[in-house]
């Protein structure tokens, strides 16, 4: 995708001459939608990005927040690898994991957990299953090899992703204040050192490739734009980075992702208000006869750019050699322009700030999304229950997460498949503090945002906060991955803008500052644009390691904290039977009630109401030896997916009701028979545990 004529004129005016071939390509990539957020940045001011706990907000490779009452800092980031995962699902997804882990390293942190949010076309289509299989294998192989557990996430199927799947990955890391590193270059005369894999020709033009619609022949024609990952080198880089931080050798750091060396090094010095002089011939390479443009823009993986004091360069090289990593002194920080030379020729000479931040913002037309009409299906409770329970969207995702090592690192307090992951912060207890755990949730529901971009996105924030509340955790911070179609289409941009506003308002409502994120637009293909998909990853904190699980114990009463809701807009029930309805206005007040219930002494189990409504929530709570006997007033109450609510098993419903500042309604009781007995407005549904498990094995049955 060549530099646009209007952009070229701006560049020519700034430089006072025609740009060189390398400069034009560098501006094309750094000023792409993927890097410069030209269409989305005007919208992002809607987010609240600060709080007393925010140490580093948006703008660096990852955000940093403090864990209240401790000396621990948590890094948090999310990114997309959508187009690459369509062209090459295995390497596209794997390098997405590698990239977000290196963003964590850039802050001086050690990665401790990953989450994936995956979106594919209809599960009944062979191509969707092919993409799912390759993406999961890529995430699994890369994450398992580098020893970072994938502990939570979501997998959704929707026709809108048929020609353009979404692969969003979030990472959490740990660091302390004395080890924190940022991207801003510090001082002229310091050296720029490249550590990691040798540079090849893979991933050329990846940033610009991610900033245009996918063509029908993308799987063959765009393959050179996809990076190729090497997780074993990444593991060495993780440990080398830790050793470099141990010895206080790093002044600034940035991983080589979008736009490769040109992107990382120019952004580092731009953030510091400085310049650089780089000799591209010094970059260690793995392919012969690479030219300046290839060296500058290749997005070869497993590489870091560091700012290092001149007297520390030798020690950095020794540590790199110890971990069998390449190391090149490629240049130094200066007070002038960003300058790159190659074989005696100056190929780039431009102000770093103009490269990194000079792209003009787009002023695009938008159409406000329309409301859905109400068209409810006429179907029996039993048939509806069967269809929703066995839908790929509500079915067990065990086929996905069983391929991930989710316990490596000895922090995982609960396995995937529940409302939120929990991670032990052993460092706090080892330092004499009380046991402290992080809670982690990630995902979005395209049915919700397709029905109403604003209210569906608002509900996404409430849903993730409810997942944290179900394990007793308070929101600490959130990061978002805002996925949309071609913003030049007014209806697409209008839906995207509404989703941004909804997510911002929802995060404010649950007290979760949005401290960082990623934007991925031009997710269009011959099949059309993807639905607005505001993936949210939310981090929470709680005292203690023990939290109730979601399976009933068979010893208490069942209540619904947050009360019944009968609205069906965006529900899987409507999706299964081609119905429609407006998406409901979502309240966030129930989240605190769920959190109180989760921490209550009388509570035995908690499970939030989400995809599939109460039907799926109650079915998922049934175990081999413990069941559910419940009454629900209507079909709407059974299948409504309004978030901010949870089913709680309690040994004392009256005491719980007094403790919780939210509506609490009786549902029934837990039983000791391992079955679901459900009454719905005069009709009944009865399932044995094994029948429920079999209905929910859709992915395993079709993919194994």
Which helices and strands appear, and what pairs or packs with what?
Elements: H1 5-15, H2 21-30, H3 33-36, E1 54-56, E2 63-66, E3 72-80, H4 82-87, H5 89-106, E4 110-120, H6 126-146, E5 150-157, E6 166-176, E7 191-196, H7 206-209, H8 218-221, H9 231-246, E8 252-255, H10 260-271, E9 275-279, H11 292-297, E10 303-308, H12 313-322, E11 326-334, E12 338-342, E13 345-350, H13 352-357, H14 381-389, H15 398-401, E14 421-424, H16 426-430, E15 436-443, H17 446-451, H18 453-469, E16 474-483, H19 490-509, E17 514-520, E18 524-525, E19 528-529, E20 533-543, E21 557-561, H20 572-576, H21 590-598, E22 603-608, H22 613-621, E23 627-632, H23 635-639, E24 646-650, H24 653-659, E25 664-671, E26 675-680, E27 683-688, H25 689-695, H26 698-703
Parallel strand pairs: 4-5, 9-12, 16-17, 23-26
Antiparallel strand pairs: 1-2, 2-3, 3-6, 4-6, 7-10, 7-11, 8-10, 9-11, 12-13, 14-15, 15-20, 16-20, 18-19, 21-24, 21-25, 22-24, 23-25, 26-27
Helix pairs in contact: 5-6, 5-9, 6-9, 9-12, 18-19, 18-21
Please summarize what this structure is:
By secondary structure, the protein is α+β, with helices and mostly antiparallel strands.
- Low-confidence stretches are none
Helix content: 25-40%
The number of helical segments is: 26
Outline: globular
Strand content: 15-25%
Main β-sheet, in a few words? 7 strands, mixed
Gyration radius, rounded: 25 Å
Task: Give the overall pLDDT as a whole number.
Answer: 94
Strand order of the largest sheet: 8-10-7-11-9-12-13
**Number of DSSP strand runs:** 27
Structural class: alpha+beta
Distance between the termini: 40 Å
